[in-house]
Amino acid sequence: MDLTWINVVDTAVKIGLGALISALAAYLALIKSQAHEDQKEARSHFYKLQEEKKSKYVELLVQSQELIQANLYASCSPDSEGYKKYLRAFNEVQIISSDTIRLAAFNLVSDVQAFIFLNKNQPEIELVDKMVASAREKVSIFQKVAQDEVIKCYQKT
Question: How far is CA 51 from CA 19, 96, 146, in A?
Fold first, then answer.
């Protein structure tokens, strides 16, 4: 009779330990699965933001080049629709970007504004040429900084 009681206790302990091991394994699998899902979501969000940034950067660059070209021989009006759209594009870039991009965008917009608002009725050709060159240089600098930003790969934090 003692052996039966010992066999019952032995079986109960084995079942209990098996259940405990199963519960721990399930818990660890759940945690690992959740961590993987969180990482997947973070990666997806990162690349979605990268695409949004790229779109905003391209829009700012295009509008900068359009304003420079459109105002080569005439001054721009600060209340024009093109300039208002340009300011909106600039502000969108400023909001979603790192400080490096924000600084490059500010320098770009500053030079473009200086050029497009320049009185071109009696221009000094050298001054206009220097201002156009400076604005175009800022466009190329912004292009490179923006390129460096949008080609970054996701890094686990």
Answer: 48, 12, 12
- This prediction has a pTM of 0.77
Task: Show the tokens assigned to 44.
Answer: 């997806």
The domain locations on the chain are 2-150
Structural tokens at position 15: 């079942």
Q: What's the CA gap between 9 and 16, in Å, rounded?
A: 10
3-state secondary structure of 98: coil
The domain defined by 2-150 carries CATH number 1.20.120: yes
> In tens digits, what is the pLDDT along the chain, a chain of 157 residues?
567 888 888 888 899 899 999 999 999 999 999 999 999 999 999 999 999 999 999 999 999 999 999 998 888 999 999 999 999 999 999 999 999 999 999 999 999 999 999 887 776 888 888 999 999 999 999 999 999 999 988 887 6
> What is the phi/psi pair of residue 155, to 5°?
-125, 130
Residues 135, 111 contacting (CB under 8 angstroms):
yes
